[in-house]
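Q: Structure tokens for this one, please.
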Amino acid sequence: MKNINVNVDHLTRVEGHGNIVVNVKEGKIEECKWEVVEAPRFFEAFVRGRSYLEIAHITSRICGICSIGHTLCSLQATEAAMGVKISEQTRLLRRILIQGENLQSHVLHSYFLAAPDFVGAPSVFPLVQTHPEVVVRALRMKKLANDLCDVFGGRTVHPITPTVNGFTKLPEIKDIKEIRRRLVAAGPDLEATLALFKTLKIPDFQRETEYISLKSKEEYALYEGVIASTDAGTTPVANYRNWTNEYLVPQSTAKYTKHVRDSYMVGALARFNNNHDQLPARAQKAAEELGLKAPCYNPFMNTVVQVVEVVHALDESIRLIDELLDKGLKEEDRRILLKAGRGVGSVDVPRGILFHDYTYDRNGICVEANCIIPTNQNHANIQKDMEALLPQVLDRPQEEIRLSLEMLVRAYDPCISCSTHLLKVEFV
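A: Here is the predicted structure, written as tokens:
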């Protein structure tokens, strides 16, 4: 009978500190754990006592990859608390920004973090020698996404121009047109990306769970909507606490969440399962070419959905830019009437649905805050997936078992914190 001890400390090609621990004695699974060992970051405490104009700039620092999503979600919550109704121009600019971030993040994960697993490489760096054209393409697409965010957010990371009830500086028309030209010119890179990911063998693993995301009647929801569940229909974003139900577990410094079942999944796969019929034509075709059908219960396919969302991000960015250019840009009055109140914002960022919740006094000073991050909502589902996957791979060599579990966690594209770590694996 097989004895296996796996200690992945810490998992590479993810953001932050996460460990995989597996112990099998005489073929019996005694331990299978996804451990989160990050220290608390206290952002909710940082913003208490701060002006409403500072909150988004502070909370954008929660993440260097999803900083745009945090900024926009924060602004939504503040505007909801103050009773502010943003203009259509502001809404358009924000929707372009969220598409830019999705493009930016998905290219990073699919090419640089996930793809090496499928070609047997420990990281992207060996691919510079073996597949230089792939790496150059990925860098070119990442640069395009970065520049799009630069134009509309003021800088690539931690956007500076979005503010409460508008933008402090509008993008230049010439810069918008140039980005549009480059988005259109990226067509061949997009086709090559689809061709590449069609060749990758995705592990055959299924575990049905609950999928939660934003949903909108107007579009494939990222910027706004209601909370949607494959199990429980929809609810307003203000009701998020009744759906997230945070709780503590011994092996994690991060809170877990659950709703109808013991766990749920957020992210690209959840969005696809809830909203696939709202994808535009080219993204629908890409999903078909990649063998993706809803409902999909294979968490490894989350990376494939991200590639489909790359198609969507590129096409939707062009469409929104055209709408913006057609309407024209104008300076707007950003003044608001301060008042006490509580507001909740929700944006579906690359890794899933995000919530910000603030309470302000009559002077616009934050007195209470709560943020629920997508990866925290996925931790319980990662644990359940590991428990289901491990028995299916026990007959494989130890190295394959380790790689299968690592690939599973990486498929979620977890953002445990904003740093990466080297991998140390020991078999005892």
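A few notes: The first helix runs from residue 43 to 46. The chain is about 45% helix and 15% strand.
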